[in-house]
What we know:
The chain has helices at residues 16-24, 27-40, 47-68. By secondary structure, it is an all-alpha fold.
Amino acid sequence: MTVRPREKLSEGDDDPVEAMLKKSGCLELHYKVQECIATTKDWRKCQTEVSDFRSCIEKHKNVNTRNKS
């Protein structure tokens, strides 16, 4: 099963969460988490994917925090 991006709501309206994840560079990892959960039906079996996604988000937050200082 492949998880794909949501359809645009209307012309030019991206999902705000997907837009944020794309900007952070973590969108593909987000899709991997979704795909794992859809395949296994158990998020506990997706800890590697969740950990990779969490690390990516934390890295992005740290970069943004330093840039704002």
